[in-house]
């Protein structure tokens, strides 16, 4: 009896055939969060090699989950999700919620990649809560290795938040010096910004109004938001 052929009648097994290869779900999640270009997707998934990313994108295209679109005028290539991939959004969100509740996410903080974290952090900045001008923020992780210590976040009205790995030369409005673990802990709602600031693990220097309003323009992860909402509703 061909066990494999019989198992494929199970819809869960059929889904795994498409989604199980390593990095596939992370790629779809990165595209869900807005990345459409090859380098954007790779920056959001630091552990994947260019060769493997190319392979996975081709596989997703073959499965009808993404389409490769080339601008004939500029030659720019974008990868766009199909309706079938968009339908997976609640599944990916549910996986994240499950992991947040049932795995020790704090264990992974010690091995977190600073570049990957800051790349994702850019999505948590609400530009509408910032002054209606260019705002430059420097975030530093002193304990990290060279190349992972300093990052610059540049925000402009009506433009995507930009992350720079080299000093762009702008006047910095706010300096954030922090332990990487402390920033990630705040981002995922394991602790509060005020707690980490009071403990000296996050230090804010610069424009006072930006420092005071950081809890308005720096938004925690949606996974953390769900837990914090439950804590508040239960009086914790």
Automatic annotation (TrEMBL):
UniProt-listed Pfam families: HxlR
Keyword annotations: DNA-binding, Transcription, Transcription regulation
Keyword Transcription: yes
HTH hxlR-type domain mapped to chain residues: 10-107
Top-level taxon of the source organism: Bacteria
Protein name: Transcriptional regulator, HxlR family
The keyword Metal-binding appears for this protein: no
GO molecular function: DNA binding
Organism field: Aliiroseovarius sediminilitoris
């Amino acid at each position: 009896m061909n066990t494999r052929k019989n198992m494929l009648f199970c819809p869960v097994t059929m889904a795994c055939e498409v989604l199980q290869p390593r990095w596939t779900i992370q790629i779809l999640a990165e595209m869900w969060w807005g990345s459409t270009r090859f380098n954007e997707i790779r920056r959001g998934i630091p552990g994947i090699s260019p060769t493997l990313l190319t392979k996975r994108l081709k596989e997703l295209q073959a499965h009808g989950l993404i389409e490769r679109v080339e601008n004939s005028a500029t030659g720019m290539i974008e990868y766009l999700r199909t309706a079938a991939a968009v339908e997976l959004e609640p599944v990916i969100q549910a996986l994240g919620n499950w992991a947040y509740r049932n795995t020790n996410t704090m264990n992974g903080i010690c091995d977190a990649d600073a570049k990957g974290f800051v790349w994702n952090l850019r999505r948590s900045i609400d530009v509408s809560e910032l002054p209606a001008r260019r705002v430059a923020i420097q975030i530093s992780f002193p304990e990290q290795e060279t190349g992972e210590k300093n990052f610059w976040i540049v925000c402009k009205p009506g433009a995507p938040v930009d992350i720079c790995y080299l000093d762009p030369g702008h006047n910095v409005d706010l300096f954030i010096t922090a332990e990487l673990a402390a920033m990630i802990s705040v981002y995922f709602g394991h602790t509060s910004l005020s707690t980490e600031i009071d403990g000296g693990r996050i230090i804010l220097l610069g424009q006072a109004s930006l420092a005071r309003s950081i809890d308005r323009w720096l938004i925690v992860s949606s996974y953390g938001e769900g837990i914090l909402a439950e804590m508040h509703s239960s009086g914790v």
